[in-house]
Amino acid sequence: MPQNSHTPRSQPLWATVPESDRGSVRLLGAVVGIGVLQLLFYFGAVLHPWTKATISRPVYAATGGFVHPELVMNLAWLGLVLFVLRSESLTARDVGLRRAVVGPALWSVVLVWLGAQMLLVTATVVTTGRVPGFAVTPLFSDGVVVFVGLLVRELFGNSLYEEVLYRGLLTEQVRLHLGSLSGVGPSSALALALAGSQALFAFVHVPARLYQGATVPQTALSVAALFVVGLLFAVVYYRTGNLLLAVGVHTLSNFPVFVFGATAQWAVWLATLGLLLVWPRLSLSQTAARPATVQPGD
């Protein structure tokens, strides 16, 4: 049994909170440590000229643009996260990776994608008076292999890893520890956990933004945007109880595949908010994706 475990007394009404007792000081420290190590490794090894010339570029060229260094790196870090879970007698299920949520996640992501397409078409018609043309060709301008490689990199290399680490693990660990404190109710614990964990999620991107040449104001704006988007991903998880749905939305946000008009992340975000608003009415999702019975809270 993990250390400092506790079971929440009640749950916020709007959320599908796991009835978990997996709080652990060591696990919380390990989550933060993995994030720091990843940054150090990224700037110390992945971006090093020798690594690029000797490993990254040759592998990318040999696979026709399919294998990206970020995919390999993030899969390795995800393996480390799962190893740490195992050391705490936990499994992938404890961070929301369950077979039961695969189906609801898939069709829900399709709904979000279709909704985003409709929003973009509607916005184009309203602002220009024209229906946007079918623009699937630019998606494959570098070839199908490169396109699929980019999608795989985002889905399994970036979105899956970040959702497991920052939403499935970090946010939940902070919530559990705050909820164990006297005077902190379930809703307050969840709200504080969402704010604190997503602030960390946003700030870990600062070095990369500065490395890419962003100015301080641009970096600050990027951090603010990442905080809000991180909150959206976290709310997707806690609203639906489906981490894989958060992974799918994260993927669409970073890699929005539109077949009409230009790419627009805002359409994905609005479509996601729409899904969250109608989620309680989707009975299939409620029965298939809910990890535990939720009791109305404060």
Automatic annotation (TrEMBL):
<keyword id="KW-0482">Metalloprotease</keyword>
<feature type="transmembrane region" description="Helical">
    <location>
        <begin position="105"/>
        <end position="126"/>
    </location>
</feature>
<protein>
    <submittedName>
        <fullName>CPBP family intramembrane metalloprotease</fullName>
    </submittedName>
</protein>
<keyword id="KW-0812">Transmembrane</keyword>
<feature type="transmembrane region" description="Helical">
    <location>
        <begin position="220"/>
        <end position="238"/>
    </location>
</feature>
<feature type="transmembrane region" description="Helical">
    <location>
        <begin position="59"/>
        <end position="85"/>
    </location>
</feature>
<dbReference type="GO" id="GO:0008237">
    <property type="term" value="F:metallopeptidase activity"/>
</dbReference>
<feature type="transmembrane region" description="Helical">
    <location>
        <begin position="27"/>
        <end position="47"/>
    </location>
</feature>
<feature type="domain" description="CAAX prenyl protease 2/Lysostaphin resistance protein A-like">
    <location>
        <begin position="148"/>
        <end position="255"/>
    </location>
</feature>
<feature type="transmembrane region" description="Helical">
    <location>
        <begin position="258"/>
        <end position="279"/>
    </location>
</feature>
<dbReference type="InterPro" id="IPR003675">
    <property type="entry name" value="Rce1/LyrA-like_dom"/>
</dbReference>
<keyword id="KW-1133">Transmembrane helix</keyword>
<feature type="transmembrane region" description="Helical">
    <location>
        <begin position="189"/>
        <end position="208"/>
    </location>
</feature>
<dbReference type="Pfam" id="PF02517">
    <property type="entry name" value="Rce1-like"/>
</dbReference>
<keyword id="KW-0645">Protease</keyword>
<keyword id="KW-0472">Membrane</keyword>
<keyword id="KW-0378">Hydrolase</keyword>
